[in-house]
Amino acid sequence: MSEMTDELEELLADKPDLEEAFETLLDIDAAGPWEFDDVPMDSGTFGEVVSRDIVEKVDGEYRLADPDGVRAVLEGEPSTATPTDHSGSPTLRSVPFDADWQALRPLAVGLVVVFLARVYMYPQVFRPEAITLLGNDPYMYRYLLLELARDNAGLFAVPGGIKVGEPLLVSTLWTITAILGGAKETGFAVLAWYPVGAALISAALVYALSMTLTRDRRVGFATLVLIAVMPVLGYRTALGFGDHHAFDLVWLALTMTAITWLAMRPDRAAWKTGLAIAGVAIGVSGQVLAWNAGGLLLVPIAFYGVAHAAVAVRDDQSVVRALGPVTLGVAIGALLSWVVHLQAGWQSQYMVLTPTLLAGGLLGVLAVAEVGRRLEVSAPVVGAGLLGVGIVSIVVTSVVFPDFTAEAVTELTQLVAKSGQEEIAEVKSIFSTDYGFIAGPFFFFGVSLFFALPYLFWGFWHGVKRSRPAWVAAGTYGLVFFLLGVIRVRFASQLALIAAVFSGLAFVHIYAVVTEGDRPDILAGSRPQSIVPVTWNRPERSTVFALVGVFLLVGGLGAMMTPLRVNLLTYDQSQYDAAMYMDRHADEQDLEYPGSYVFSEWGENRMYNALVSGESRSYGYARANYQDFITSPNGSQWYDRLKDRGYIVTTDIDRGDVPSQALQTQLHRYDGRETSHYRLLYASEDESVKVFSPVAGATITGTAEENRTVSISGEMDAAPVAIPAEWSVRTDAGGQYTVDIPTPGRYRIGEHRVTVNESAVRSGQEISLS
């Protein structure tokens, strides 16, 4: 039987007196489209019938969605009829539930694709001597887990300094680590694997969302495939990218799916509705406690509440029934956030106040809209009332919670202004000119976003026009995150998660057009009645070509861009080898932090410090100083600042018009031999990475003919092999010369041969060749 008949049976079980009304309705429906005034039902009951999809609205009038199914239920017989739309053409066949695997296979296969697209870089993450995470920020969480492991912390522990930030993420990672034994190496492995687990959970939830909207497993499967190859999701949930983004996506996916499900079926069995409300509550609370900017992820709920209420008033449906479950879910989520905040001190009061104010705003929208509907006031008046709710909410909040208002204004200003963060990629727009205005989205979505956007705008319009609040919910999420993505790339992954549903719909639609096959019901103008399956029969060659062609069109560029984007976050073998060398050297020299601190480009600073000393909480010093260091010609001045720190890393990167006197050139190109204070410790095989340490430097003096050039040559003792060096100095008018040697080795200076040892360069020993 179809889901509609299940809904009708459930409704009649609660209200058996409606059987006569439905018998009359069958006769009315047989004569053609009808209006509400034609049926023997009150507005509340009729609204429930519509919300259960037993009746659908077509061009401003109503029809029974499945007359044969209604008749079968009233006669007490199972329905064997294929549901039909009102154009007279049959809808797509229902799935043959001969086995649970038949129903689960699209989900299972799709999740396997997502998994494989996240773990192919395994060798670059799990290396012989260490786990190297992707990117820079994940090493902060590595540091936090290391500290908790050192302290042998209990379950659900969170370091004090992170309670306002991402406490739920750190607590979850540590709790899993503690359950698995609590070793620091276990924590590092948990941190590396967690994004993959988060990707699978969020993908499964979005699959459920797409099925709620379309009841088409082809769309659900296409959604999973596009999630797998969308670049921004690919690298944010890749193995080793243990940042907070993947964790945020889980709570967002849960919230979106639960709200969409409630919008589609607000009057299902109480336990099902309760489960969905719990999903909203947990999702909202999770978003708030997982990230200190999680309140921004709740913005779509506010816009959805207004849009859904307006649609319900227009259609004379109960706003309480339409919006009440979501409002309750948000309120419970706010309560959960407050309980955790007061008991554990997680997040600032500003952050936990956000869902509270959202729940209050939704309640105000619900009340105004419901009163307006019952008083039968005009749509403009109701709209003005809803606008008034927003204005009053802002005014009341600014008066009652001035600190919240000030913080909100600051956050919004930073969101748009981006002052002081220009070099950070995440603050740019997806259409930033740095990427190319049109090409920018290619780096994050391939071209799938351009296919998703028309269906996204259509979906929202369709939801509003045809009274389909689930589409209003999904469309609102997509539109809000598109706007936020235009402002900041930081929200591109949230946009990608919902855009995958619409690009999946585009994929199936285009494939149906190309092959002249069955289009998704929702695009054929009818409400989906039965679940459309994915067929797994051996395909014909033309089918394979069509599938591959459409995939290359919609997802092909993303499939190519994803590994490129991931590779940008992966540390290469030269960087890893340099880090391992510094780690061994620090152990041999018995160096302790900050004596083992690594000074490097800020984007890789946490990685080096994590693998050498474990102190990778911040890259602030490198970010503030490294650029000035490599462009400065004054090595002695910087030596005074860096002499108590252990290592300096230079890389073979394009610095533009860096002068020859700059330290970048003196160190990386000339191995620091003329800098007096920078001892070359290590050079990678391709010399793309070099490691130095600040030393006093040995000073060698000698005499030769006045105003002549004295040549210097030799081999510097650096790992893994000695490096040849050659340069020269001039004698003064008295024939005196001075040579500063920062790196131990064997040198020929004029006619003299001299060996400079480690202690000489570290102590600043003076050696005379007279």
UniProtKB/TrEMBL annotation:
The keyword Transmembrane applies. The keyword Transmembrane helix applies. Keywords: Membrane, Transmembrane, Transmembrane helix. It comes from the Archaea. The chain crosses the membrane at residues 191-209, 221-239, 245-263, 270-290, 296-313, 325-344, 350-369, 381-401, 435-458, 470-489, 495-514, 544-564. This is Putative membrane protein.
